[in-house]
Design goal:
The complex is a heterodimer. Chain A is α/β, with parallel strands linked by helices. Chain A has five helices and seven strands; from the N terminus they run ααβαβαβββββα. Chain A has helices at about 1-15, 25-30, 55-65, 80-85, 130-145, and strands at about 35-40, 70-75, 95, 110, 115, 120-125, 125. Chain B is mainly alpha-helical. Chain B contains eleven helices and five strands, in the order ααααββααααββαβαα. Chain B has a three-stranded mixed sheet. Chain B has a two-stranded antiparallel sheet with strand order 1-2. The mean pLDDT of chain B is about 90. Classes of the chains: A alpha/beta, B mainly alpha. At the A-B interface, α1, β4 and α5 of A face β1, α5 and α6 of B.
């Protein structure tokens, strides 16, 4: 009975602002309206050679950013630079054709996949580690995209 | 039947033990799968998962050992096969200890490196829920049935004099502590306390090490022919003294040293006896031996060695020298 109360209390709290981000990503975005995104060139997922990144994933990122009322500040770099940037909380999100088997899982957060390609690769994005409130928001967005009628195709 | 205490209800308790072992296996399969689904980047859940995965070994050994220990002795294995079980438990306890230590270092390292666990969303029934919340009912499922399973195992272990089953029961009963630690870790993480998760992982690994250490000591004691201990309280078993007393009341016995060893669920005793007037009759020997054997259902064999003087090393096993 007591457990039931605790769980009920927890799920009520959960509905509001939990989980929180230890480094305050969600709050910072809400205040500054800036989403810091790293991108590495990996067409067709991300085309990072032009002035503004293009491709499936940059489009998704812009869509996500507008859904949370933020504008995207892009930074291009190699996978390693991006992963280090996430690790040190200089970036919030990174894209570039990462899949669920990415080795960066040991130092960054990995989102849910937004598409599974015919070669059985589940495509994901990377987030700053441990920013679980932010990660959950990205996950919610990406899972919605799976059911988007327009669809995402490579 | 070999490998079983001689009491009318022994078979019934063995069947209860086997049923519990099967239930454990199915139940652990469910906890391992559920934990794997919700674990995300959580160190605490990973540790809990590893603990549960290793918990498969004792019930499997129980089922296997019951078959092996009933095998009859033969020319190659003149003392039967009960010891095979003890050897299996030494191995499983050592594995558990090693894994506990690895997980302890793993968790401590994550704390030291200030690693923040990433735990994201999980799509369930058209909604995306934070995996940390899903972990809480999963952890309850890891804790509550295990507790009742442990209590049922403890009830079966005592009449069977099965130390390994008793130790497994203790582990099951204590599982709520690690599940509780993981829950607190998860709640801590939800409030942005990233260290709560690794800390819970460290606590769980300490719990693994504690129970593994207990099992290593117990199973090594078994292989080393330690003086028998009671299954539940882990005190010296009175059986050695009772056999000793029985011999001392015999008119033909002047001095005796009784040594009892455990082999799985059974015990065997050997008694070095110095007979009065250096004379012994075969009928005295066998009647005393038979009565000694009936003292306790766990006693499978009593071997009597008549000697004119107690050998020095055997005499060291006397009660007075143990104190």
């Amino acid at each position: 009975m007591r457990w039931a109360t605790v769980i009920l209390a927890l799920s009520t709290v959960a509905a509001c602002s939990l989980p929180r981000d230890p480094e305050g990503t969600t709050e910072r975005i809400a205040k500054e309206h800036v989403l810091r995104v790293g991108v590495t060139n990996n067409p067709p997922w991300a085309e990072a050679r032009g002035d503004t990144p293009a491709g499936i994933e940059p489009d998704l990122v812009r869509h996500f950013a507008s859904s949370i009322g933020a504008k995207v500040v892009w930074r291009t770099g190699s996978e390693t630079t991006l992963a280090q940037g996430l690790k040190h909380h200089e970036l919030d999100l990174a894209v570039g054709g990462f899949d669920a088997q990415t080795p960066w899982v040991s130092i960054t957060g990995v989102t849910q996949s937004f598409i599974e390609t015919p070669d059985k690769k589940k495509h994901v994005m990377l987030t700053a580690p441990g920013e679980n409130g932010f990660l959950l928001r990205v996950d919610r967005f990406l899972i919605e995209q799976r059911h988007d009628p327009k669809g995402i195709a490579p | 039947v070999r490998g079983l205490p001689e009491r009318p209800d022994a078979e019934r308790h063995v069947r209860a033990g086997q049923r519990l072992a099967w239930i454990s296996i199915v139940y652990l399969a469910s906890t391992v799968v559920l934990l794997f689904m919700v674990m995300g980047g959580s160190q605490a859940l990973k540790t809990e998962l590893v603990e549960d995965a290793l918990s498969f070994i004792p019930p499997v050994l129980f089922l296997v050992s019951d078959r092996i220990s009933r095998k009859k002795p033969n020319r190659e294995y003149p003392f039967g096969f009960e010891r095979a079980v003890s050897v299996g438990y030494v191995g499983s306890a050592a594995a558990l200890l090693a894994v506990g230590i690895i997980m302890l270092f793993d968790g401590a390292l994550k704390l030291a490196l200030l690693e923040h666990p990433s735990i994201g969303g999980f799509a369930i029934g058209g909604k995306t829920v934070w995996m940390g919340w899903l972990a809480i009912p999963v952890l309850l499922w890891c804790a509550v049935p295990a507790h009742f399973l442990g209590r049922a195992k403890a009830r079966a272990a005592k009449p069977l004099h099965d130390k390994n089953l008793a130790a497994n029961a203790e582990m099951d009963k204590a599982n709520w502590q690690s599940a509780g630690a993981a829950m607190l870790g998860m709640v801590g993480v939800s409030f942005g306390l990233w260290w709560a998760d690794s800390l819970a992982g460290v606590l769980i690994s300490l719990e693994i090490i504690r129970s593994a250490w207990m099992e290593v000591r117990m199973s090594l004691g078994d292989v080393m022919d330690r003086r028998p201990m009671t299954v539940d309280e882990q005190e010296d078993d009175p059986i050695s003294d009772r056999i000793d007393e029985l011999f001392r009341k015999e008119p033909w016995v002047r001095d005796v040293v009784v040594r009892v060893r455990e082999r799985g669920r059974e015990m065997t005793a050997d008694a070095h006896v110095v007979p009065v007037d250096n004379h012994v009759s075969v009928s005295d020997l066998s009647s005393t031996g038979e009565r000694a054997c009936k003292l306790d259902p766990r006693l499978a064999e009593v071997t009597i060695a008549p000697v004119s003087e107690i050998p020095e090393d055997v005499a060291r096993a006397r009660r007075s020298e143990q104190a």
